Amino acid sequence: MSSTLSTVLRQIGPSVMLPMLVYEIGHGAVMPVIALVALDAGASTTVAGLMLAAIGIGTILGDVPAAWLANRVGEKGAMLAAMLASAVAMSSVLVFDSVAALAVALLVLGACGATMHLARQSYVAEVVAVHHRARAMSTLGGVFRIGLFIGPFVGAAVISVWGTRSAFAVAVVASLLAAVVLAFAPVTGAAGAPAGGAHAGPVGVREMFRRNRRLFFTLGVAVASISAIRAARVAVIPLWADHIGLDATTTSLIFGIANAVDMVLFYPSGHVMDRLGRLWIAVPCMVVLGLGTLALPLTDSAVSLTAVAMVMAFGNGIGSGIVMTLGADTSPAVDRRSFLAIFRLMSDVGQSLGPVVPAAIATVATLGTGISVMGGVALLGAAGLARWVPRYSTYATRAMVRDHHRRLTEERDSVTPG
């Protein structure tokens, strides 16, 4: 576990990062056209808009079964199964021209995503040293962002030749190619093995929740607020842009600029967490997102909205990998997968609620009020993280980091001859 970061990245690059990048390119290709395909299949505008929610529902439904699957076939087997199931689901959209078939396919896609994310997080938590963990997790977050960034461009190129539904063919090819890459990639430790290793055991999800319910109801809720404000950011920026009269082209350009800011910050995030402790990212991430969200209703032009969107993207970007890192830090060595399944479930519920809260408040008050409430949620989340991260993560503060490195040095000295 004393490998340098470059060695760690070589270690998990072929088995996690490369297949995830390829897989997410396919995911990114279909995201912009889901509503359009639903409309072509005869869905109403409302139903077409709800199709994206099917992915989130599938993710929540898939979190706990993902742990069951990984405990039986190992992380590599679980990821392979998810990739192949995703390919089948996306193929069904090419074969069946119906709203029901699309909804089922998106539910399966969400469940496959849950399996992929849990398996990769469990694997990295197992094989990467704790003092390199945040950089590995934040780089995984960066790979996820890069794949989703590239995907729409690949999809657009294919759609220009074969039509809208061909974006799902991109997803099929990407899933199968990712499975081939993963199948031939070397794995380290117990990632390719079913339950029975040090990190897998007979605890189960229900018992794991009972043992750690205090953690889940404190730190878990704070982590859910991270996912909620991140998801809300994606929803409220275009809603506010429409509110102040900006067209779709301008809104897309604002998103592109903000995403560029978000995407370039993933590695510095992990570096800071590993060098100074998790709090140095967890709290600033939420404070910046909260203040940016509170400032959003104050904008009244493309320029001011772009500036605030960039601030929010900065907050989101510096938090790359924070949820996965905290999950890995707090997970037990025995049956880590069941713990992470619950941890991810809470995060995914937060992600699902994030866009709903401001929209629901807007129906009884104003959109600006709904957005401001989410800004307040982010600041409360920052306070929760400041309180509970040091209680549950042994790598939360700079003092904890120094103590960890001191123990490592003492252990190396104790086994060095002479």
From TrEMBL:
User: What's one GO-annotated cellular component?
Assistant: plasma membrane
Can you name one GO molecular function term for this protein? Answer: transmembrane transporter activity
Please indicate if the UniProt record lists Membrane as a keyword: yes
Q: Where in the cell is it found?
A: Cell membrane
Q: Which InterPro entries match?
A: MFS, MFS_dom, MFS_trans_sf, MFS_Transporters
* PROSITE patterns (alphabetical): MFS (PS50850)
Mind listing the UniProt keywords for this protein, alphabetically?
Answer: Cell membrane, Membrane, Transmembrane, Transmembrane helix, Transport
Stated membrane topology is: Multi-pass membrane protein
**What parts of the sequence cross the membrane?**
21-41, 47-70, 140-162, 168-194, 215-236, 248-267, 279-299, 305-327, 339-361, 367-389
Show the PANTHER family listed in the entry: INTEGRAL MEMBRANE TRANSPORT PROTEIN, RESISTANCE PROTEIN MDTM, PUTATIVE-RELATED-RELATED
Query: Which protein is depicted?
Result: Predicted arabinose efflux permease, MFS family
Q: Which organism is it from?
A: Blastococcus aurantiacus
